[in-house]
Amino acid sequence: MKKAFILAISCICILISCTEPQKKEVVIKYAEEPHSFAQPNNAVITHLNLDVDVNFDAQVISGTANYNIANNGASEIILDAKYLEIEEVKADGENTPFTLGDMDKNLGQPLIIAIEENTKQIAITYKTTAKTEALQWLNAQQTADKTNPFLFTQGQAILTRTWIPIQDSPQIRITYDATVKVPENLMAVMSAENPKEKAADGIYHFKMVQPIPAYLIALAIGDIEYKAISNRTGVYAEKSMLKKVHAEFSDMEKMVLAAENLYGAYDWDQFDIIVLPPSFPFGGMENPRLTFATPTVIAGDKSLTSLVAHELAHSWSGNLVTNATWNDFWLNEGFTVYFEIRIMEALYGKERANMLALIGRQDLDDELEALKDNPNDTKLKLNLKGRNPDDGMNSIAYDKGYLFLRTLEEKVGREKMDAFLKAYFKKNAFSTTNTEDFNDYLHTNLLEKNNISFNTEEWIYKPGVPENAAIIQSDAFANVEKTLQAFIDTKEIDATTTKEWTPQEWVHFVRNFPKDITAEQMQQLDDAFNFTASTNSYISMVWFEQSILNGYHGHEVDAKISEFLNTVGRRWYVTTLFRAFKNADRIEDGLTIYKTARANYHSVTANTVDELLGYHN
Question: Which of 133, 248, 311, 545 is catalytic?
Fold first, then answer.
């Protein structure tokens, strides 16, 4: 009876399958994306041909974004756009209807374009507006040479949609080429194959043959020059900065070799760095082939070049293997900090690497304290739906992610860890991954393979830092702490003990002042070491923070703090000092400075400080 019933049902199913029209199978490839309107499982972009004109007088980029698309039988394709004027859209060369949906304060608008199921290309003619957030237009006075204007873009996390209409999700990778027209006395460079000299006609052509996510499409335009370090490394900078930048970053080729020795071949052909004007909001941005960097790392002694190692490491973790969504951001940054510190250890020794790691651990403790009322934000795997993904770009992703991997390394052994990571990068090259897939891969290819037990779920999905976290120690920092304690106890400082200190040791010294340090003691230290006039931006930042928090006033230090905040746009440094003003109940002093400094900041920095200080422009 049961067999007969099954046979009958089978026949009915066969009959239905023969008579029903066959539907095209939809292959689900892309994850649900909380920070993009795109529906790439229906229709997705695969290649961009960008043709734009850059008008410095009007501060507008205008032109056409031409896309090849893969169409899964859809009647529309959806792109992301924010603060753009869309003038015309074509599908396979013919005008096609389009609409811009409702504006979301974080995401912008969906650009919905009508297509046919066999449409192969779309072309969008558009221009940027004064509200475009990715672009910073700088006048000549805001540059190093003070002779010509400058423009740079910042796409991470979801700002590329503000200067190019695009499917702005990290899991959507495309190749691109571009034609960019600029004033004849300026040079344009992108995250692509780049010129080494200025074009006489101001027209530049670019090609990126490796597929990258939208946030890594980058453009900079200025009166810049190039100087090679090796046949695959070099630097761009304004003329007055070029010699200093070249000397500071002269170890770039050594860093590339050290990275390759750890985790395999560098797959991007060229590794160059451009040092931007000081308003650039980050220490560095890992745009492939052309890292963008802040001038605050030019210290004259290579002491802050761990930033170069960090951005280079992104060539594997982030650029080669990318987080699928911004909820998985720690996969980009935690891995990169781990890799960065391994590069620094290979080149400069374990003690310097441990100093960097210990500073990161202190940053993590500060972040945990700041987020104590929001414990879910201290998880590695985040839920940022309905929020700006920048909310997840903090020490949790970077330093908790690093600590997880360092703890894992100590558990399994460095040899096994290195073999695992090298295989992980190779397997996932030029693709995206998420936390769950990584966790599965980790268990299968490292933990179970070696019969090792590890609390990965606690590290990834629980708040805070697990009790089995690696203990990071530094003999150099232990000596720094003894020197500081001796000063607190005796009110005297022996300058001979500090003669050979690195900037990292000075930072550790200043950051660990006791909470009850007096203004008189800070004056004594300033007289001994001239902190207020330091030319190292990192030391300056931590010293000014302590000055604000501990009531160390005076015309000289107050003037230097104001000068620093009016000339440096690096978000980490700026927010640290404005937060100190707030915590010291000196918010009005902070606002007075901010009102003059804000115009010099990129929107990424200004938006953060606006919220911090409750400022309304």
Answer: 311
